[in-house]
Write a structure and sequence with these properties.
The complex is a heterodimer of chains A (626) and B (202).
Chain A lengths: L2 H6 L3 H12 L5 H7 L5 H4 L3 E2 L7 E2 L16 H35 L11 H10 L9 H16 L14 H10 L6 H11 L8 H31 L5 E5 L9 E6 L3 H11 L2 H9 L5 E6 H11 L2 E4 L4 H5 L6 E4 L8 H5 L5 E4 L10 E2 L7 H15 L13 E5 L3 H7 L5 H9 L4 E5 L11 H12 L2 E6 H9 L13 H10 L4 E5 L4 H15 L8 E5 L5 H12 L4 E3 L9 H15 L3 E3 L3 H18 L8
Parallel strand pairs in A: 4-5, 4-7, 5-6, 7-8, 8-9, 11-12, 11-14, 12-13, 14-15, 15-16
Antiparallel strand pairs in A: 1-2, 3-10
Chain B lengths: L2 E4 L10 H8 L6 H4 L11 E4 L5 E4 L8 H5 L5 E4 L4 E4 L9 H5 L6 E3 L10 E3 L5 H5 L5 H5 L5 E4 L1 H18 L10 H16 L4
The chains are: A alpha/beta (626), B alpha+beta (202).
Bound molecules: iron/sulfur cluster (SF4) (4 copies).
The site of one iron/sulfur cluster has 15 residues of chain B, from strand 3.
Pfam family, one (chain A): Prismane
GO molecular function (chain A): 4 iron, 4 sulfur cluster binding; anaerobic carbon-monoxide dehydrogenase activity; hydroxylamine reductase activity; nickel cation binding; peroxidase activity
Organism (chain A): Syntrophobacter fumaroxidans (strain DSM 10017 / MPOB)
């Protein structure tokens, strides 16, 4: 096999499909990455500014050419402004996703969203009570209506603090209050971030970055948290389910439909349609043995978590999945959908359909889904996918799928532990489990696909550190077999014992990227049980292959919540040593946690282990020297 | 005589030199108008990616003796002694590509050009912006490069500066030698990219 394929991805299906893509003359994300080299150093260092039209400006990193933009902004200000805007964009994306779910809930409550219903009424009541809505004598729809209203208020400007901040440990909230970074309104913090980075507003790089933390918190404890909670209420709180991952989940003899993007509002309706009797019969009449729905990216994760729907791949695999020639239709919503997909699909018989009023792509048909027509639209699309089955050319599905278990919501994890975090705390205290790490984030062609995720997870579980993961990272470790039922064998003796006893893998799939908030909730539960702050826990976060603005927002809310977080790719900040120092050292004194940047997962694992042992020492628990 | 001197260790790979060069060799001399011209003007400097994906601005060295000049049978390539520049006469060029084969740096391209007869594909390369120099301007690529990866100066002076830098680093001991303020930031980035490239690659 060609070395370059193995250099691009560690996955066998990825390597074989890259070879196929080259034969079919399909250009992939890796080819385009190479065409972009060298990348612009100003932009990589965050030293280019396009905020106003006196510019664009750039600062000479060597200190001889221009040191100030036209407005007078120096490297610190420009780098900070750029980073702040990335966080604002990331927070806006997650929060807009959350808003869409509120709208569905509201329409369900008003009886206008046929097909959707409330699947977890108990959670509805629980979340409603957090919003001060009593359930007494009310039917579910009434509660839903009031909850939707109250959540919408979290987006606005009338509040002093977001409702769900109350989930954070008291000590953490004190930290935020002292710094004045407790987020007030979800949209408000993003709007204020954009305002402050406008030319001539906030030109103090420290206060800009503090607002960025507040903006990120408005995502983590606001937009994303609402998105997750409402998805659970509308589509069911995830429970462990067995599933399969990698391109091998496509089926030669079945109609294959792929859902891609982030929003379960569309994919859940597609899932319903795929399971309806008459459409299954139609498929049979076309000679297909069934309808096979599979996911990629986070829409896939949403379905995997709740219904055990199989997962064909993560971010960098999305183009390659199409090169199998086996996909009869790909239905996309929004976020992380490469605009190249339409071009790739054009080489095969695949039909590409976009569904969101806010996301269009070249070479795709647009069929808009709204809560009131989604069930119907989904049926129509599935029918068309079935009809497309007969247009298939040659099909190449090069690998067998890997088994995995997904669906570990906080509710499930605590359930498995007998309802309280105490058994986990006992294991942490005794040192059977040294700590826990959340591995999150995307793929990035800068890093060999999945290498960062898989190597890091491997090293951590070997050293008795429990791993929870989400998003593309979660798919990577699943492909590598870490989520199979017998994966406990790969863990160190302590973790292995506990996982075997509980019948869980050592790497727990906690969902899509918005579901990173489940990690916050779990960390808060641990900290509350111990009567301490999140920043005192032997836990860490890592994003070994991140690429998106959403990931910057996630990283920032992890750190602002007190979780030490290691990034693989370097964010565009090296143009300002002040900003670098603040993020990697200074934040320790501010929020009790820092970022660290380390592309080598072996070294990242060591740094994380050291951090965990240090936190153990701080809590007076038995600690090792790493 | 002043020359364009390349300092590849400072190139940040922004590629701004490329459109600047193309614009300087367009009919309109204006970036926004130039992209609408036919033929579309093309740069004579090309930024490549090094082992660590760092930028490298590659342009004609105006060698002496010049292998391209020696290889050109119709005599289209000649040296302008005054500017010490190897030039190509587009009227004489027969598009045989001998010069490109002879050039060790791969800096000669073939395409239509507004200075060549319409419709004729000719050999094109850096001309040291002699037209700009005649107007008292410095070469376009140098003007636009904000990190001084390209400078226009007396070679003697540039050499002296380099020599002094090295000399100072020796007297201090290399480890203590103070890098100019900005170098640390760039070194951090390049160091990181170098690591990324080595991570897990077979
Ligand atoms: S303008 Fe300067 S720094 Fe930018 S690519 Fe050209 S030579 Fe390199
Ligand atoms: S084209 Fe090549 S061989 Fe000719 S002078 Fe320039 S660098 Fe030398
Ligand atoms: S391509 Fe043109 S310039 Fe080059 S050797 Fe041939 S005739 Fe001479
Ligand atoms: S000196 Fe002029 S012609 Fe030569 S590379 Fe620079 S801009 Fe282009």
């Amino acid at each position: 096999m060609n070395d370059t394929y193995a250099g691009r991805t560690i996955t066998r299906d990825g390597q074989l499909l890259l070879e196929k893509a080259e034969k079919d003359r399909v250009e992939t994300v890796w080819d385009r990455f190479e065409n972009q080299l060298p990348q612009c150093g100003y932009c990589e260092m965050g030293l280019s500014c396009r905020i106003c039209v006196m510019g664009p400006c750039r600062i000479d990193p060597f200190g001889e050419g221009p040191q100030k933009g036209v407005c007078g902004a120096d490297a610190d200000i420009i780098v900070a402004r750029n980073l702040c805007r990335m966080i604002a964009a990331g927070a806006a994306s997650h929060s807009d996703h959350g808003r869409d779910l509120i709208e569905v809930l509201d329409e369900v409550a008003k009886g206008k969203a046929a097909g959707y219903r409330i699947r977890d009424a108990e959670k509805l009541k629980r979340v409603a009570s957090e919003y001060g809505i009593s359930s007494d004598g009310k039917d579910d729809l009434k509660i839903a209506e009031q909850l939707a209203y109250a959540m919408q208020e979290d987006f606005g400007t009338r509040k002093k603090a977001l409702t769900l901040l109350r989930r954070a440990p008291a000590k953490r909230r004190q930290v935020w209050d002292k710094l004045g970074i407790a987020p007030r309104g979800i949209d408000r913090e993003t709007a204020e971030m954009m305002h402050r980075t406008h030319m001539g507003v906030d030109n103090n790089w420290q206060s800009l970055l503090l607002q960025a933390l507040r903006n990120a918190l408005s995502d983590g404890w606001g937009g994303s948290m609402i998105a997750t909670e409402l998805s659970d209420i509308l589509f069911g709180t995830p429970k462990p389910a067995t599933t399969a991952v990698n391109v091998g989940v496509l089926k030669k003899d079945q109609v294959n439909i792929i859902v891609h993007g982030h929003n379960p509002v569309v994919s859940e309706m597609v899932l319903l349609a795929c399971r309806s009797e008459d459409l299954l019969q139609l498929a049979a009449s076309k000679g297909a043995a069934g309808i096979n729905l599979a996911g990629v990216c986070c829409t896939g994760n949403e379905l995997l978590m709740r219904s055990g729907v199989a997962m064909a791949g993560n971010h960098l695999t999305t183009e390659l999945v199409l090169t199998t020639g086996a996909v009869d239709m790909m239905i996309v919503d929004y976020q992380c959908i490469m605009p190249s997909l339409g071009t790739v699909a054009a080489c095969y018989h695949t039909r590409m359909v976009s569904t969101s009023d806010k996301a269009r792509f070249p070479g795709m048909e647009h069929r808009e889904f709204h809560p009131d027509n989604a069930a119907e639209e989904a049926r129509a699309l599935v029918k068309e996918a079935i009809e497309n089955f007969t247009n298939r050319g040659e099909v190449y599905i090069p690998v067998e799928p890997v088994n995995a278990v997904g669906g570990f919501s906080v509710e499930t994890i605590l359930g498995a532990l007998g309802g309280t975090p105490q058994p986990l705390i006992d294991a942490l205290k005794s040192g059977t489990i040294r700590g826990a790490v959340g591995i999150v984030g995307c793929n990035n062609p800068r890093i060999r696909q999945d290498f960062g995720h898989v190597t890091l997870a491997k090293r951590l579980i070997e050293n008795d550190i429990l791993v929870v993961d989400t998003g593309c990272a979660a798919v990577a470790t699943a492909k590598a077999g870490f989520k199979a039922s017998d994966a406990a064998q790969m863990a160190g003796p302590g973790l292995r014992g506990i996982c075997s006893a509980l019948g869980i893998p050592p790497v727990l799939h906690m969902g899509s990227c918005v579901d990173n908030v489940r990690i916050l909730v779990l960390a808060s539960a641990l900290a509350n049980a111990l009567g301490t702050d999140i920043s005192d826990l032997p836990i860490a976060g890592a994003a070994p292959e991140w690429y998106s603005e959403k990931a910057v927002a996630i990283g920032a809310y992890f750190v602002a919540s007190g979780v030490y977080t290691v990034l693989g790719p370097m964010p565009p900040v090296t143009g300002s040593m002040n900003v670098v120092k603040l993020l990697t050292e200074g934040l320790q004194d501010v929020v009790g946690a820092t970022f660290s940047v380390e592309p080598d997962p072996e070294k990242a694992a060591l740094a994380i282990r050291r951090h965990i042992e240090e936190k153990r020492r701080g809590l007076g628990l038995p600690a090792q020297k790493v | 005589m002043k020359k364009v001197i390349v300092h590849p260790e400072r190139c940040v790979g922004c590629m701004q030199c490329m459109p600047a060069c193309a614009t300087a060799h367009s009919r309109s001399r204006n970036l926004f108008a130039a992209i609408l011209e036919s033929p579309v003007p093309k740069p004579r400097i090309h930024v490549g990616a090094g082992l660590y994906q760092e930028g490298f601005p590659n342009r004609c060295r105006h060698c002496d003796p010049a292998p391209c000049l020696l290889a050109c049978l119709p005599g289209a390539i000649f040296r302008d002694e005054e500017l010490d520049t190897v030039l190509i006469d587009p009227d004489k060029c027969i598009n045989c590509a001998s010069c490109a084969m002879a050039c060790p740096f791969g800096v000669i391209r073939y395409h239509e050009d507004c200075h060549a007869p319409p419709g004729k594909v000719v050999a094109v390369k850096c001309d040291n912006c002699f037209e700009r120099q005649e107007q008292g301007l410095i070469p376009a690529c140098v003007e636009v490069c904000k990190v001084n990866a390209l400078t226009f100066e007396e070679p003697g002076e540039a050499l002296k500066r380099k020599t002094d830098e090295v000399a100072r680093s020796v007297s201090l001991g290399v480890s203590q030698a103070e890098l100019p303020a900005g170098f640390a930031r760039f070194a951090l980035l390049i160091g990181h990219k170098r690591k990324e490239l080595h991570v897990g690659r077979p």
